[in-house]
């Protein structure tokens, strides 16, 4: 990670008005075994990426912590650890970056972080907000998957005010804004290619806006967020993910999505309508895409077409055949025979 430099120039900025500039790259995954790295080397590699030194590591973690994936955009950074570190001391940022980090343990895990003498515990579903400008100590005892997102302090401060970022604190995922932030941050790690600069800036802005809502936006911050698209985009992504996870449910509809997102059915319809679609069309196309993938996968176990249709939530075989042929120019049986 660097401050200013070539990345800033590409965006038409100077180091004086940039609050955070990270290496602009697509998703980076590192597996210790594949890379021929030891445990300490893996931690050092991650530390160099984010500008920190790790010390006080434990031998117990050496047998668990083997990989992480990271994506850095100019003003946002997300890292997913397959297994987080239980014990460590993380130095202040060595690259001169003043960042705020939101660390989120997966269900069944917990984080116990200490900073400036304040100790915070967050169990699966909650998060810990902390600074990267000061030393952080971990006392965690039950650590699994951890998602960590770093954002510029100055950018967040403009939305929440300085007092909200003054000390380490817990954020609860009972808050819909926190859940939206986590969902949107996870989607960042699914990017397969370099996003263009405009998209990268938009993602950074939207993560900051969602984080501000989770932390507690000031009145001016709320007004700025209302005028943007972060909430709508994050909710749309959350709706898509919920639908894809529940395609096997034959009666899946806007009511189920609305209940999961804690919004009204009409708000769900608006999410898809603003994008020139409908929730019914999205569900149908997602089911067809899943069915096609299952039928055309030569490595899959032999499946009957009727079973595939049921697994994808189709209640009528005639409707399934008709929609499949319209979408792919062949019948489900013909797609299966091509394997």
Automatic annotation (TrEMBL):
SMART domains the UniProt entry points to: HTH_ARAC
Family annotation (InterPro entries): AraC_XylS_family_regulators (IPR050204), Homeodomain-like_sf (IPR009057), HTH_AraC (IPR018060)
Pfam families attached to this UniProt entry: HTH_18 (PF12833)
Domain of life (superkingdom): Bacteria
Domain HTH araC/xylS-type, residue spans: 237-338
Keywords: DNA-binding, Transcription, Transcription regulation
Signal sequence extent: none
PANTHER family: ARAC SUBFAMILY, HTH-TYPE TRANSCRIPTIONAL ACTIVATOR RHAS-RELATED
Identification of the protein by name: HTH araC/xylS-type domain-containing protein
Species: Rhizobium wuzhouense
Taxonomic path: Bacteria, Pseudomonadati, Pseudomonadota, Alphaproteobacteria, Hyphomicrobiales
